[in-house]
């Protein structure tokens, strides 16, 4: 590596416009890459270990507030049709957990059933994650009820602890 990107730095590679998004939480140096193709108006985000389909990375070096900001402020602000490519294929185990804390979520149930039959579940989209991922739904009554918390950061911390012990 000749230059480590910082939050918001951008570069172009052919028709691809790439922006670095600093996403602390899993680690203190995590960067996601948001890529827009100028020719076909497609958007993707490579999320590494920050955002998984139906889940998020463990909080190794970051705090719950860091992960909340990464998921629910920065990544949630991307267009809903942005395709999500995560660093690992944990989808089906993530959905087993998600259904334990958000079991009445019809979007989650439908996506979990669809993904259960697939060997590869990516890409997802930011919109699908906002609708199904418990770590991006921390403002929803079902998650607040499951955790006994109302502050979204505290809900995220409680859901992450529950997932760690699932």
Key descriptive features of the protein:
166 residues, alpha+beta, 36% helix
Q: Would you give an account of this structure?
A:
This protein has 166 residues and is α+β, with helices and mostly antiparallel strands. The protein is built from 6 helices and 8 strands, in the order E-E-E-E-E-E-H-E-H-H-E-H-H-H. It has helices at 64-74, 91-101, 106-116, 126-132, 141-147, 152-164, and strands at residues 10-13, 16-22, 31-37, 42-48, 51-52, 55-56, 83-86, 124-125. The strands form 2 sheets. Strands 1-2-3-4-7-8 form a 6-stranded mixed β-sheet. The chain has a two-stranded antiparallel sheet with strand order 5-6. A hairpin with a 2-residue loop joins strand 1 and strand 2. Helix 5 packs across helix 6 (152-164). The radius of gyration is 16 Å and the shape is globular. The mean pLDDT is 96.
């Amino acid at each position: 590596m000749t230059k480590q990107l910082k939050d918001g730095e951008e570069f172009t590679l052919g028709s691809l416009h790439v922006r670095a998004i600093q996403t602390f939480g899993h680690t203190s140096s995590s960067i996601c890459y948001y890529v827009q193709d100028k020719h076909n108006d497609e958007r993707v985000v490579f999320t590494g270990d920050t955002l998984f389909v139906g889940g998020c990375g463990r909080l190794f070096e970051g705090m719950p507030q860091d992960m909340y900001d990464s998921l629910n402020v920065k990544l949630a602000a991307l267009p809903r049709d942005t395709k999500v490519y995560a660093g690992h294929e944990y989808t089906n185990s993530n959905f087993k957990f998600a259904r334990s804390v958000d079991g009445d979520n019809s979007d989650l149930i439908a996506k979990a059933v669809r993904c259960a039959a697939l060997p590869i579940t990516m890409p997802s989209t930011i919109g699908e994650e906002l609708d199904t991922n418990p770590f991006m739904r921390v403002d929803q009554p079902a998650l607040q009820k499951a955790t006994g918390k109302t502050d979204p950061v505290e809900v995220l911390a409680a859901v992450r602890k529950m997932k760690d012990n699932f």
